[in-house]
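Tutorial handout. Part one gives the primary structure; part two gives the three-dimensional structure as C-alpha cells.
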Amino acid sequence: MKPYLKKIINHKFFKRPFEFLKYKKAQIGNTKLRKTIIVVLVSTILMVGAIILFISPIAKYLIEKHDVKYTGREIKTGWVYLNPFTGYIHISNFKIYESKDVQALSMEDSVFFSATSLSANFGIFKLLTKTIEITELTLVQPKGIVIQNKEDLNFTDLIKKFTSKNTDKTPIFHHVNILGIKILSGEFLYKENTIPINYSVKNVNIDCPGKRWDVDTVFAKFSLLAGVGSGEMKGDITVNIKNKDYRLAIIVHKFDLNIIDQYLKDLTNYGKLSASLDADFKSSGNFIDAEKATNSGLIVINDFHFGKDTTEDYASFDKLVLAIKEVSPKKHIYFYDSVIISKPYLKYERYDYLDNLQTIFGKKGANISSAEADSGKFNLVIKIAEYLRTLGKNLFKSNYKINKIAIYDGVLKYNDYSLTEKFSIEANPLFIIADSVNKKDKRVELTLRSGIRPYGNFSVNLSINPQDSTDFDLQYHLKKLPASMLNPYLISYTSFPLDRGTIEFSGKWKVRNGFIESNNHLVIIDPHISKRIKNNDMKWIPLNFIMALVREYGNVIDYEVPITGNLKNPKFHLYDVIIDILGNIFVKPPTTPYRTEVKNTENEIEKSLTLKWEMRQSSLVADQVKFVNKMTDFLIQNPEASILVYPMPYRDKEKEYIGFFEAKKKYFLLSHNKKTQILSTDDSLEVDKMSVKDSLFVHYLNRHLSDTLLFTIQEKCINFVGWAHINTKFIKLNKERENAFLNSFKEKALENRIKIYNIENSIPYNGFSYYKIEYKGEFPKYLIKAYNQMNELNNKAPRKWFKKDRAKIGNHL
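Part two.
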C-alpha cells in the first residue's frame, strides 16, 4: 500500500468509527452477562425466599398435624421460622399439652410445657457425616409442670415413646452433639397428688456448654428463685452420665423451706413447719452410692419453727450453723469446724393419752413407719433422713473432729397434763459448750449451765473418753429448786401439797469401762406439808407419817445414795436412807419439844410476813382473822407504823383452778337440771370434789367443743368457759380478797395506814398465792422475838449444819 493511502487510513477521522463500533460491541456483550447474572441472582433469592417463606408455615403445619402421631401429645405453636440453608429454627409460643390420660384426671386442657420462644442452630454440613449437631439451643421463659402420682409421672409416656425398642436396628445418625444450651427466665412447677405437694421455682436460668457424643461429662451453671416464699439459689454442677459421679458447688440465700412442710403433712396428723436456708456448699460423690460423698462448706438454717400451728412451737431455733471442713463416710473422715445452735426451744408435753410428739407423728411414730413402708411413695423428708443416717453411719468408728459445739440461750420445757393439775418446768437459759471434740484427744470436756424456771439452777461437767463412751467423769449440781414445784405430783398421789422447802441434789460419777463409782447427795431443807386437798381423782397417802420417817429433827431431809455396778445393771446403796429412817424412829421422839419450838417459831415468822391464800379462796379463815386482828392491834399501839402489802397471786394456777371449777359448774347445773346459776354451799363442795378427769365430764366437754386439737383438760375447760369469763372471775377473786383483808382495818378506821400495791405477775416460791407484808416504822415485838429465837435455833445443832445452805436459799416469801 502506498504510503499516503496508509496515512489516510490511519488518520483519526477514519479510525474512530471503527473503535466506536468495537466498543459498542463489547458493551452489548457485558450488558447481556450482567443481565444474566442479575436474573440468576434474583431468581436464586426469590427461590430461597420462597423456600423459606413457604417452608416455615409448612413446618408449622407438619408439627401440628403429626404431633399426636409421633409424640402422643398435642403441640401448638405461634410463628415458626425455619432456614434450611443455615440450619436456624425459631418457634414462638411453643406449647406441649398433657397426655389425654392426665387431662382426663385433671379435667382440663392443661399445658405440660411451654416457652415464649424456642430457637436452635443445626450444623447442616454435619448431617453429611451422619451427625446431628445443635450448636445453640435457647429456651426463653419456659414453663413446665411435673405431676407425680405414686410412681407414675406425667411424662412417663414420652419416655416410653422415645425409648428405642429395637436395639439391633442401625441408627440413621451415628452421633448427636448438643452444644450451648441456655434456659432464660424459666418457671417449673412440681405437683404430687398423693401427699399432696405443690411447689415451684421461678426465674430459672441455666447455661450449659452442652455435651458431645464422645464426652461423658456435662457441666452447667444455674440460678433460680423460690416460687413459694422467698430466697435464691445459684451454683454449678458437673455430672458424669456414664458412672453417675457428680461435683456440685452451690450458694443459697434465705431460701424458703416450704417444701419440707408439705412433705411433713404426709408424716403428721397436724402441725406446721417453717424455716429458711443459707449455704455455701460443695459436694462431690456418686448418685448411686451416697457413702462416696465428700462435703464441705457452710450450712445455716434460720428461723426454724415446728409446732402445733403458727402460734405454738414444739421446737424452734434462731440459727443452726454447720461449718464443715470435710465429711466423707467412705474415707471415714468427719471434720467440722463448728456446730452451733442459737436460742433453741424444745417443748415436750404429756397428755392423758399419748404426748405431743405421738399426737403429731402417731402412736410410737406410726405415721413415719407407714410412710417408710410405702415404697411406691416418694417423701423428701424420709430421703433426707436416710441420707443423714448414711452420712453419720460410721461417725464414732471414724476420725472425727469438731472444733466447737455450742448451744446458746436455749429453752427446754416440760409440761405434764396427765396429773390433776398441770406440772411445768423449764431449763432456761440453757448453755452447752464443748471445745475441741477430737477422737485423737484423751478427753473431751463438756459443760452445761442452766437456770431452772420458775426457780433454781443446774450445772453439769462431763469429761469423756472420745474413743470409749463407757469411760467418763460426771459432776452435776441442782440447787435452789422449790419443793412446791412438785405439788402437782404430790397432790395427785398423796393429796398433800408442800408450801415450803428447797431441794438441792448433787453427785459425782466416775465410770471406767462401764463400771460405776458414784455418790449422789439429796438435801431438802425445811419441807413443810400444807393441809390436805380433797378431790375424787386424788390418791391418799399419809405424807405426814412418811415425812416423820424421812425428815430429820433439824427439819431437813439429807441422804447420800452411792451407786455402783455397771451402766447396764447399776446398784443403788440405800443403807444411809435406812439408817436415817431407823434413827428418826428412835431418836426423834425425845426431840419433839425442840422440833415443836422450831415449827412454832417458823410459823410465827411466816404468819407475820405473809397471808397465804388457798386456790380460789376469797374469805379469811379463823387463823387469818386472828392474824389480821393482831396487825390492827399493832397499828393502834404504834401510831407511827404502817403496813405495806404486796399481792402475789399465782396467776396461772389460780386461772387453771377457776377454769376447772367454772367448767364443772356448768356441767353440774346441766346434769342436775338446775335452773339457777347460783350454787349452794353443798353444791359448791360437790363441784370442788368432782374430778376433772371424770369420764362423763370429759365426754360432755368433747361434745361441746369443735376443736380436735385440744389435748388437755385445761385447754378444754378454758375453751368451754372462755378466757373472758375466767379473767373476769380472777379479777373479782382478787378484789374479794382485798376487801376481806381490809375489812378489819376499815372497822377500826386504819385503812389509810395500809397500802396495797398492784398485783405482781410472778410464780410464788411456796406454790400458793399470798400477800407479802412489810412493816414501815416500828416492827411488832412478837416478830422481833420470833426472829431472835430462830437465830438462836439456827446456831444450834442440828440446824447449824445447814446454816450456810439456808443463807444461800435466802427468803423467798
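Part three, for discussion. The chain has 21 helices and 30 strands. Residues 12-65 form the longest helix (54 residues).
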